[in-house]
Amino acid sequence: MDRREFLKKCVAYGTAAVGATLLRPIEQILAAPLDTAPDLVAVMGGRPADLFDAGIAALGGMRAFVISGQTVAIKPNISWSSPPERGATTNPELIRRIVEHCREAGAKRVYVFDNTISSWQACYRETGAEAAAKAAGAQMAPAHSTGYYHKAAIPGAKVLKEALVHELVLEADVLINVPILKHHSSTRMTAALKNLMGVVWDRQFYHYSGLSQCIAEFPLLRKPTLNVIDAYTVMTSGGPQGSSYRAALELRKMQILSADIVAADAAASRVLGHAPEDIQYISLASDLRLGQKDLSSLKIKRITL
Amino acid sequence: MKKSGSASRPIHLGGIRRILGTVFLLLFTYGFLGWGTLSRTLASLLSKIQLGPILLKFLDEGFGGGAFFVAILILGSTALFGRWYCAFLCPLGTVQQMVSPRRMVQGGRLFRDSTVDAWIRYGTVGLVAVLLLGGRASGWGITPIGLNLLDPYGLLGRILRDLIFPILVFLNWLLFLVGRVFELYVPLFSYKPDLPVFFTTFLVGGSWIVLSRKRSRVYCGSLCPVGTFLGLCGWASPYRIQIEPKDCTHCGICVTTCPTGALRKEPSGKVLLDVDRCVLCMHCVEACPKGALRYGRGNRQTKTLSPSRHPRKGRQWEETPISPLHSRRYFLGKVARLSSGLVAYLSLTAIGGAVTYGLAPEQFLLRKRAQGPSGKPNLPSTPPGSLGIDRFTSLCISCHLCVSHCPTGVLSPSLFEYGIKGLFQPVLDYKRGFCEYTCTRCGEVCPTGAILPLSVESKKTVQIGRVKFEQERCVVITQGTICGACAEVCPTHAVGMVPYRNGLDIPTTDNALCVGCGSCEHACPVPRKAIFVEGVVVHGTAEVRKPLYTRPREPVKKEFPF
Fold first, then answer.
1. What end-to-end distance do the CA atoms of chain A give, in Å?
2. Model confidence over A192-233: pLDDT tens digits?
3. Fold classified for B363-541
4. Fewer CB within 10 Å: N-end or C-end of chain B?
5. Cβ contact, residue pair A208, B173, below 8 Å
């Protein structure tokens, strides 16, 4: 990708993002009576891979999100080098099944990546993400060096006006956000919106300039095509790392799927026992018209396996 | 006179030296610059048979440890066969051999005058020995400064890590750019530039290479304390280069090929061998057009004989004794030179020591990071397993092997963080990274025992520093926003969040749990860190609390909460 092409893409994505934000209400009004697909699917009572099979089927299958020949970037939360049963990182079974669905839908290339907090090789390996991704035919993309990041202007942002963003977020046709739901010591909860902090280079800027505001503003650049929140093993305290004596886990065996990142997080906040309004960044993102935090106005499909 | 050992074709020792030396150098380079378990295993194996680290380890372990036996093996075999170590095991020697010229006028000697040269050689060894033993006895943690600067293993380690590795990083970057054209992801090396150390190594390494290009193994001949020490051990070795007087034509070719200046041609034409300088490279054996030189055992009949021309008697033979004890004059001469060098440097050391200890303030010995609120000095943190600053600085040889293998880059070469006595010794720089909670690599690879190996479980109990929180700099107070970057990354809950006001949480610290990993300091977004680690002189013990919940709980209500 040369500079010109890159700039073009930046402008294109920027415009698209702004356009999407502006069009959203009209689109919803027009689509609501005709569209039979649910806004949000919640699945419960099975292994992560089975939950995904059921959930994606209810959303019309992966072909509703991935067109043959496209490149897909999958962003799990694999920030800590801890095994899946510790509930700090996205379940590798789920990553594997998502990659498989993408391949079946005809994706040309599937990348899995995360700007990890612990050393990246250890995280990729210990979380099982690397093995799962490779087994299903995806490539683990590195994200540990500033060389993979490009400066992007974030349209309509007040604080996070620009950021160094991983090139896959700027380039891939499809972005699938696959966070794990956890307690978080800073923001009380981490799921879909907070997970996108792992695609930017300078996280300290977020903390220094207003954490909730930056988290809420980032999707103005690009909203994920699909959000899949892993709530199988849920860390209810001692998060996000869960290595201290205070960590507590609950086996919720749940999964939340939605193209609406705010709605997905609003539902996830309920799983942790919060109201969506309790989480600052959900309210802020809703104010930015990035999605619907009011669950009662959404068409939710609940599936119990 | 009987001629022995010429009937059978001699083994091509020079070729063996080249092959083994090169293989060893390549493995060594891989151990330093590679990644993964293989690289680490290789590095820790190879570096543990390097004499500099072995001597330090022996000082720490005493006679019971493995280092003593390896030292006895190396020194004993040197007493028999000469400085074979320099030819085969020393990777720096191999590098020097590679960049050396084939012929030179004054190879291997800093000064042509052998007395001056002896002063430098034995003086260097004396200085290193005095610092090693005296520093150890004083308990000031000043032991290895001489060895730090001059040990060939440490020098090569620094050249590999601080000079060659950045160059590889640049090449890796080029490869990465090529990979992008083909939509391939080439992983970039993690490297945090360290310009002062890069340029220092560039200067030291660069001048070393320039010197080697001109004078060949002048480092091995005139400066290397390990080489000179081995030379003293192998002074009377029965196996050595032998000059067959009948075949020697005094052409002097052997003298011009000798990389350490071990062969000398006297004005009379006599060729003499300084056994303690000879590194058994076999250049002279290969170069002699008459085949008059060979490596082998001398005996009564075939003592090293040096041909000379007597003004009147013409060609005749003079004996160069194989053992100093065979010639009183030779022996006394050596002793005189040795002791004069030692005496001179002992007095220099005494003066230097007096200046360092007596006149210089403590800050000069151990520079401190100013990070406290009132500019209060802060001690540097040493790696877990080093037990404390003084022990660490008294044992570390500054080879930077741990720096090479540190996954987060927190271990960085220092310049003056430990004062002049600890030049180049690694320090934990929390600006660059943090000490990974479950990582024990630095102790795995450390060859001197400066960083002792730890199990993951015992590492979790080692407190290398203590956390300090300066509330007035925290963004929660100064900006009134939520942050908690420190508590998020803390692996032990030594940093936690407690309610502050307006629904905000503020960090709170508990030093009973703190391991001093610096995750909080690294993550703190404020330029002048609101939370940081204060180094400790001696490492403490961190409490490991039992988890409140050992297994995941089943949810009470198995239904959707929305």
1. 45
2. 999 999 999 999 999 999 999 999 999 999 999 999 999 999
3. Alpha-Beta Plaits (3.30.70)
4. N
5. no
